[in-house]
Amino acid sequence: MLGDSVKAQEVFHTTLREAALRAAHGELPNEPFWLFRDARWRCLEATKTDLQAEPFEMEEQEITAAAGSQIERLEPRQLAIWISAAPEPQRTALALFYLDEFDYREIADLAELKPSELSRLLALGRRQFQAWLDATLPKRPTT
Amino acid sequence: MKTPGLSRRQRALANCAPINEERIRDRSMRAAVFRARSSSEFENQQSFDRALATLVRAIPIPPETAEWFSDKDLIAPSKWTWKKAGRNPVVLAIGIALVVIAGVFVFQFVGRLNDFPGSGTARKLLSIAGSTRSVVLDPVNADAGALSDLFFLKHGLEHYDAPAEFADFRTIGCRVFEDDESQRIAQIWVVEKRMQFFLFPAERNVKTGAVLNFQGWRYVHQEGWIGAVTERSGVCFMVALRGREKDLAPYLAKAKQ
To answer: Closest Cα to residue A41, out of A81, A84, A1, A95?
Structure first.
């Protein structure tokens, strides 16, 4: 969400500290994903003052069978930076989806999206990421 | 995704297909994944997602953060509750259906509780009582008890006697007719509260032909009419009037005395 491990750790600790305080006062919400919702808002707050990229049309490419091998050549940090640079709410959708901990309805709920919007943003994200992969890591010639 | 054969909704669902198929929790998603599985686009999407998820898992977590999670699950599985189950439309529909079925059974059971041999005929006769006009009866100005001889001599009906407690009621008219089961019914109209008396054969055991006896007076209700039936010598006598049980009760109390 942040593309910066220091900031991420700060948000993580603030979220947990706040949760511990609420638990001590017996004020924990009943809603199951409140902690993640809270963490998301803190991430959005933390990046509000950051330099924002100029909005521009990203290129798109259909996903290819070679995408898997291209991704294998990536550093985890590169992926984290790419996702954190995506506009909201696509950034939340991609981050939560690839965490592989939530189902699509939970992600839509957390990102405050309709399922159809989530679907569109994920499909768009994949195509944009494929275009970026093709530009950054050209496909290896097949033998 | 441009997979042919998928509806728009299924295409949207397939775009959100979980990386791990064990995470599929609803039928519509399972159906969409099942249908999309045959397409190469979906295969590419799945391997793309798996590769990215593997990369995400490789993102190093600082040790001081990792210790918060240790061996515990990140998300506790949601607990099963009656409230949650009650909101499920399938459970709700089954529940409503069961309640309706139970209601019908209870209604029929309660209805049967008041049944007695001849109650079916008695109800049919109450319907007849409601639709009978005095002009269809032969005018007879006599005591109800005196009509036994008329029924016996003119129609050959034995034991078609009004009980002693109703024998003194003055009559307006009477008739004998056959019902849809060819049973011979005697109908008497009396002055008192425009009551009607019915005399009809008591129900018999189908195998043995023996009369199915019952003791005392039994009530039947039909279309705003109330009837009280008693059986003597294989013939049922029913006194009927438009109203409720309390309208008939005083006459039956007198009968008991």
So the answer is: A1
Q: Which residues contact A63 (CB under 8 A, 6 or more apart)?
A: A126, A127, A130, B41, B44, B45, B48
Q: B153 exposed, middle or buried (CB, 10 Å; 0-12, 13-18, 19+)? A: exposed
Instruction: Judge: A12–B65 Cβ closer than 8 Å, yes or no.
Output: yes
A44 and A74 co-located in one domain: no
Structure tokens at B213: 């006896």
Q: Where are the domains of chain B?
A: 8-71, 78-113, 117-256
Name the residue facing A98 among B16, B29, B56 (closest C-beta). Answer: B56
- Is the pTM higher than 0.90? The answer reads no
Inspect the interface and report whether the beta carbons of A118 and B58 lie closer than 8 Å: no
Q: Is B182 helix (H, G, I), strand (E, B) or coil?
A: coil
The tally of domains found in chain A comes to: 2
Q: What range does the domain containing A137 cover?
A: 61-143
Structure tokens belonging to residue A60: 């798109």
Q: What is the pLDDT of residues A71-114, one digit of tens each?
A: 888 888 888 888 888 888 899 999 999 988 888 889 999 999 99
